[in-house]
Amino acid sequence: RRVTFDSAKQVVRVEDRLRKVKRGTQVDWTLMVFGDEKQLSDDGRSVTLRHDGHALQIDLLEPEEVRFQMAPAVGKHPAEAENPGIDRLWIEFESNGRPTKIDVELTVVE
Predict the structure, then answer these.
(1) Per-residue model confidence as pLDDT tens digits over 37-80
(2) Residues 3-22 as b or e (16 or more Cβ within 10 Å = b)
């Protein structure tokens, strides 16, 4: 994993490289997000989060054929606490067996 921060542009970039993942393996990549308003773009390639007068845009740069999905963060087991206001933002895809790059950029927009 590589994480970089450009303070002048107020951008954080997260790059994950997947190697040696067997063909057909299900790959899931997740961020937990919160905000007063959460808006997934029509094309599924970006999300805008707004909270207390601030906004953050999250863009999926790679893989190109994948789209973000978003839903309330719900525990898988009854003993897990609920997370009101927290959503799970994720991508999922089936590995083609070749090295894959997941590249996500988080930008302060307001």
Answers:
(1) 999 999 999 999 999 999 999 999 999 999 999 999 887 787 77
(2) eeeeeeeeebbbeeeeeebe
Q: How many residues are listed for the chain in this entry?
A: 110
Residue found under tokens 């590249």: 103
- Extract long-range pairs of 68-72: CB within 8 Å, 24+ residues apart: 68/40, 68/44, 69/44, 70/33, 70/38, 70/40
φ/ψ region of 36 (left if φ > 0, alpha if ψ in -120 to 50, else beta) reads: alpha
Query: Cα–Cα distance between 42 and 51 in angstroms, integer?
Result: 21
Which tokens in the block code for residue 59?
Answer: 């863009």
